Amino acid sequence: MERLRAYFSVIRTHLARTHGWLLVLIIALLLSIVWVWATTAPSALVVPVAIDVPKGATVKEITQQLKDAGLIRSRAVTNTIIIVSGRDTKIVSGTYLFERRPSTFEVVRRVTRGDFGVETKEVRIPEGATTKQIGELFEQEFAYFDKDAFYQLTEGKEGYLFPDTYQFLETVKAYEVVAALEENFAKQTAALLPLMKASERTLEDVVIMASIIEREATADSRQAVGNILWKRIEIEMPLQVDATFVYSVGRGTFDLTKADLANEDNPYNTYTHKGLPPTAISNPGFESLKAAATKEDTDYLFFLTGHDGEMYYAETFEGHKRNRARYLN
Predict the structure, then answer these.
(1) What is the pLDDT of residue 32?
(2) Residue 240 Rama label (left phi>0; alpha psi -120 to 50; beta)
(3) Is the pLDDT of residue 133 over 60?
(4) Helices 286-293 and 174-190: crossing angle, nearest 10°?
(5) Which of 173, 246, 281, 290 lies most in the core, judged by the most C-beta atoms within 10 Å?
(6) How far apart are CA 280 and CA 263, in angstroms?
């Protein structure tokens, strides 16, 4: 009997140990499943997705942002991974693009190493482009660009967004574009300050005149056209240029009507209003800005571009009419 009791005691002990290890294995398996689930991207995540990690953000703020964007399942797990990896002070601000569903480990690796996942893209803003045209250009070239935000940020800045060739990340934000264009404008116009001082012209007047020159002159005639337009202002003669109409009414030169030309309420009507229009009508390049800032005397008062693309000048209206008959009719 004693042997039988001892036998059953051994069996009970063995079963208890087996059940203990089994319980541990089950718990470990469950924890592994939970961990894998918690570190995989949410099934509802739709890619591509871009997020902007702000400078100086805390780990908690960033993980909340990642959670809101649908990139992670658990903030607690993500916080733990960041802290345990010792990279909680290594987070790099900027815009990150995720084109496939990442694991939490990949998300952490990228935001702590500055792996933005985007390429830079070259874009050329042509001289004389309007703010509206620049917004449309960036919307076409950059899939994540917010054109409406760009228009809000550039309200009242026509003429001050320097046209040039730029390099931007594919996820560029509207404020980053505006900052780059304005910074370039300030850099370029700094070289023209001595010319503006000598001509006693303000930066605002130079920008407005340059925007007109950009639309009215050819590459080789900027200075000559600028001289003529400034002379018209000096003798209190209306500028009489169509480019300001094109800007204000949104129609081409050949679509302007007699009613447009006779509309005295339009401040951009340079046939009925003397002096410069109230704002620039485009964003001029350096050569047009330089022409507008430079003061030179001229005997001419009229100009036109012939069908051959050449510019023709005249001192009198009679001479201008002869040029029209010869080179336009």
Answers:
(1) 55
(2) left
(3) yes
(4) 40
(5) 281
(6) 20
The whole-number pLDDT of residue 127 equals 97
Question: What is the average pLDDT across 117-130?
Answer: 92
Q: Which two tokens stand for residue 71?
A: 């990139």
Residue 147 has pLDDT above 70, yes or no: yes
- 40-to-37, 44, 74, 113 alpha-carbon distances in Å: 5, 11, 10, 20
pLDDT digits (tens, 9 = 90+) for 247-275: 877 555 545 566 655 666 788 889 888 99
Task: Give CA–CA dist 44/173, Å, rounded.
Answer: 26
Distance separating alpha carbons of residues 280 and 165, to the nearest angstrom: 21
Strand-pair category, 49-53 with 94-98: antiparallel
pLDDT at 176 > cutoff 60? yes
Cα separation of the two ends of the chain: 130
The residue length of the chain stands at: 329
Tell me if 247 sits within 8 A of 208, measured CB to CB: no
CB distance 169 to 120 below 8 Å: yes
56 pLDDT higher than 60: yes
Tell me the residue ranges of DSSP E strands in the chain. 49-53, 94-98, 120-124, 165-169, 302-305, 311-314
Cα angle vertex 149, ends 280, 170, to 5°? 105
Q: Which of 291, 134, 133 is nearest to 212 (CA)?
A: 291
Q: For 4-73, give the DSSP string.
A: HHHHHHHHHHHHHHHHHHHHHHHHHHHHHHHHHHHTSPPTT--SSEEEEE-TT--HHHHHHHHHHTTS-S
64-106 pLDDT, tens digit each? 988 888 888 888 888 888 888 887 788 888 888 888 888 888 8
Beta-sheet strands, E only, within 92-137: 94-98, 120-124
Element (H, E) at 244: helix 243-249
